[in-house]
Amino acid sequence: MMKNYRHVIIAALLLAPAISIAAPAGHDFSSQFQACYAAADASNEARSSCLADELNAQSKAAADSHAATAQILPGAERQAFTDDFVSWKKTILLDCSLFADKQTVAVERENTRKYCLIEKTLARLNGDDLIRQNKTFGK
């Protein structure tokens, strides 16, 4: 029977504070991004560059995390996990675009969309960690 990993991801989102206490190595914005964003001095254009770099880095991390997690799952679970990953990517693109639509300035709208995508990617990374942890410890 295929497991639906969406429930694990949702639980990870809801339990993020508890997970961050239990697993201090949880995923967060990179120190490079934080320094870049702080130095951007409220300029939307400068922040856009910081966000683009961070989104690229976190997207790569999500792809790597997906591959590492899928590798430890048996056949049917691996396929369900891969299907869920594809669905998740489509969903966050739509959700973050809709969320950003309230911004009237184009660069602010794009920055809001990127920030949303990064946040959702970080949550996915934490969810993948939880799946790997559960598989590793036989839960």
Radius of gyration: 16 Å
Q: How many β strands by DSSP?
A: 0
pLDDT average, as an integer?
84
Q: How much helicity do the residues have?
A: over 70%
Question: Which class of secondary structure composition applies to the elements?
Answer: mainly alpha
What is the correct CATH architecture of the domain at 43-137?
Up-down Bundle
Global morphology: elongated
Number of helices: 6
CATH class of the domain at 43-137: Mainly Alpha
How far apart the termini lie comes to 17 Å
Mind describing the biggest β-sheet? none
User: Which ranges are low-confidence, i.e. pLDDT below 50, for 5 or more consecutive residues?
Assistant: 5-24
Order of helices and strands: HHHHHH
Organism: Collimonas arenae
Protein name: Lysozyme inhibitor LprI N-terminal domain-containing protein
Keywords: Signal
Signal peptide: 1-22
Describe the fold and architecture.
This is Lysozyme inhibitor LprI N-terminal domain-containing protein. About 14% of the residues have low confidence. The chain has six helices and no strands. With 139 residues, it is mainly alpha-helical.
Question: How are the SSEs placed, and which strands pair?
Answer:
Blueprint: H1 6-14, H2 16-22, H3 31-39, H4 44-71, H5 75-100, H6 106-136
Helix pairs in contact: 1-6, 3-4, 4-5, 4-6, 5-6
Structure characteristics:
6 helices; single chain; elongated; Substrate Binding Domain Of Dnak, Chain:A, Domain 2; mainly alpha; Lysozyme inhibitor LprI N-terminal domain-containing protein; signal; 139 residues
